[in-house]
Amino acid sequence: MDHGHDMQMPMSPDSMYNNNSSSMMKDMVMHMSFFWGKDVTVLFPGWPGHRLGIYILALIFVFFLAFAVEVLSYSPSPAKAGASPVVASLVFAVIYAFRMALAYMVMLAVMSFNLGVFIVAVAGHAAGYFLVKLRKNGSSDQDPKP
């Protein structure tokens, strides 16, 4: 029995979609440590590609994903008076599911190991957290109620 000799690498996800997988594999590099550069794959195969403008668009997209995760983490009062607890719980569950989907997308983007993506993800989380705290502090109970 042969253990480890002549083992073949499994097919990449790109090879399932492209007939020209051998040329794709030559251009594809999987980074296992942080690196700088615009030549990265973020979330989708071939995106942003090798174009600087699209890379910047990808960074903006990741920033807003992380920002949205933090903004969606703010839960206002549980339910308006008279609303059904089941309906209110269902609405919060849907919002939670959406927030978790966005959070996993941010995580997958950061797993590209690109420092630019990492920095904008952290900046997006920080900006979203700042906005949430600002809104919470701005709507404190210090103002007299009519």
From TrEMBL:
One of its GO terms (molecular function) is copper ion transmembrane transporter activity. It is a multi-pass membrane protein. The keyword Zinc does not apply. Keywords: Copper, Copper transport, Ion transport, Membrane, Transmembrane, Transmembrane helix, Transport. It is found in: Membrane. Pfam families: Ctr. GO terms for cellular component: plasma membrane. The chain crosses the membrane at residues 52-74, 86-107, 113-132. PANTHER family: COPPER TRANSPORT PROTEIN, SOLUTE CARRIER FAMILY 31 COPPER TRANSPORTERS. Belongs to the copper transporter (Ctr) (TC 1.A.56) family. SLC31A subfamily. This is Copper transport protein. It comes from Oldenlandia corymbosa var. corymbosa.
